[in-house]
Amino acid sequence: MSLNALEMKDVSFSYDHQMVLEDINFTIEEKDFVAILGPNGGGKSTLLKIVLGLLTPDKGVVKIFGKEPKKALDMVGYLPQHSHFDLDFPIDVFQTVLMGRYHGLFKDYNEEDREIALQALKDVDMLDFKDRQISRLSGGQLQRVLIARALARKPKIFLMDEPMASIDPEMQNSFYELISRLKGKVALVLVSHDVGTVSMHMDKIACLNQKLYYHGPTEGAGDGLEEMYHCSIEQISHGIPHRMLRKH
Amino acid sequence: MLEFIQYEFMQRALMAAILVSVACGAVGTYVVIKRIVSLSGAISHAAFGGVGLGYFLGLNPVVAAIPFSIAAALSMGAIQEKIKISEDTAIGILWSVGMALGILFINLRSGYAPDLFSYLFGSILTVSNTDLYIMLALDIIILIVVYLFRREFLGVSFDEEYSRVIGLNSTLINMLLLSLIALSVVVLMKVMGIILLISLLAIPAAICKQYTYHIGKLILSSTIVGMILTSLGLILSFFFNLSSGATIILVLAIALFISYFIRE
């Protein structure tokens, strides 16, 4: 039997006695592509931080391929929202990606690390930009660089935090095209407040607002979303031009 | 024209200008790119507590400032980790509490504190051989630490959250960086003065950052630019009989201004 990519059992977390996550039970299989949807403040970032080992839950068990998050760091790729760092920072594309190969104190990057970093840049079609300073990239290009940084770790599970928030709408298709190339190779987890980010490529959807309301195939997600947002699915997705769920 | 070089105090002053520039290049670069200039300003003011402690205990004030400013820097880091207080507020408190302690220590040691002003506003011309040796030793420590931890400092400066995700102990690295800032404050103290030194820490890196985006080159070029501008300021202050720290700061500020124009 193969291990699950991610398993959460009865996980709860609170900040200052305010419950943020309550009894979350959640499984992601080895090659799943899963979306976690929920309103802002619904606990998505907290959930991500728990999986990344940045926060420890008050109770419950979290396992990544059977290991505790803090011991599974080398299996996890992470694409942050890139609005939070200084674009003017003196670093080029290659150095940014190479950081994904970090091994620990006093361990320098070797030739293999450089090759893996270059390959990761190739995989996201950004090799030509390797010497460019990061402020001279478009939002979509920077996101590709950050994806390469995550891939350079050779992760088994890849977490993406609001990947659509930082790129232009016309870049979204090429983002999906890129992500669909990864499907089947690693477990993919996309976290978003925007119901419009759900795509046909996804196997499962989880709806999160303090509790996990729905966890299953995309087709049945409507009910979970309605329960979570307390309004109908048409209202939440307010007439997005593409059909996000198959007719049901 | 070049006769000033024959004065022994002037030779020492030029040597001091070179030594401060090494600390500025190596640490000032991180201070600028991590955007912790005001935090560094607070550490430098807090170092005055160490100077006061030195007077009180009858020790060399520069030596006493080493553990004191490191303790101030680390308590700053710890306060932010443990207590919910904004960085801005913590900076303001550290700034004045450190200075207040220095003043009280000096009060307790009744009598006149002769060269107190030189620690506040700098006096590159009174730098002693002992001061130079201390500065040299601290420079060497700074360079070794920056070299050994270059990957970690880059990581926490660029993207702290991500650096934690890849298994880097960002709390520890931040503490180490704050300690290095404390050490460079001590290197700069006698030359520039506690009140003025923050410009010397920040301006060379701010000038060079416009021309390179490679961190190693940034450190090297800031060091060289620092050496040139500090020496120039020193020579000008000698010829025009002006206060050296203040003259150096103005030379730095004018150079920054000009560099922006050249960049445009």
Give an account of the 3D structure:
The complex is a heterodimer of chains A (248) and B (264). Helices cover 26% and strands 24% of the residues of chain A. Chain A has 248 residues and is of the alpha/beta class. Chain A has helices at 44-51, 93-98, 111-123, 139-151, 172-182, 221-229, 233-237, and strands spanning 6-15, 18-28, 33-37, 59-64, 76-79, 157-161, 187-192, 204-209, 211-217. In chain A, α3 crosses α4 (139-151). In chain A, β1 (6-15) and β2 (18-28) form a beta hairpin. In chain A, the strands form 2 sheets. In chain A, strands 5-6-7-3-8-9 form a 6-stranded mixed β-sheet, sandwiched between helices. Chain A has a 3-stranded antiparallel β-sheet with strand order 2-1-4, covered by helices on one side. Chain A is built from 7 helices and 9 strands; from the N terminus they run βββαββαααβαβββαα. Chain B is an all-alpha fold and 264 residues long. Chain B has helices spanning 8-33, 37-57, 61-82, 87-108, 116-121, 129-148, 150-158, 160-165, 170-192, 197-208, 215-240, 244-263. In chain B, α2 (37-57) packs across α9, α6 (129-148) runs antiparallel to α9 and α9 (170-192) packs across α10 (197-208). The model of chain B has no long low-confidence stretch (mean pLDDT 92). The chains are: A alpha/beta (248), B mainly alpha (264). Chains A and B meet through loops of A and α7 and α8 of B.
Characteristic terms for this protein:
heterodimer; A: 248 residues; alpha/beta; Rossmann fold; 6-stranded mixed beta sheet; 3-stranded antiparallel beta sheet; 7 helices; 26% helix; 24% strand; globular; B: 264 residues; mainly alpha; ABC transporter involved in vitamin B12 uptake, BtuC; 12 helices; 81% helix
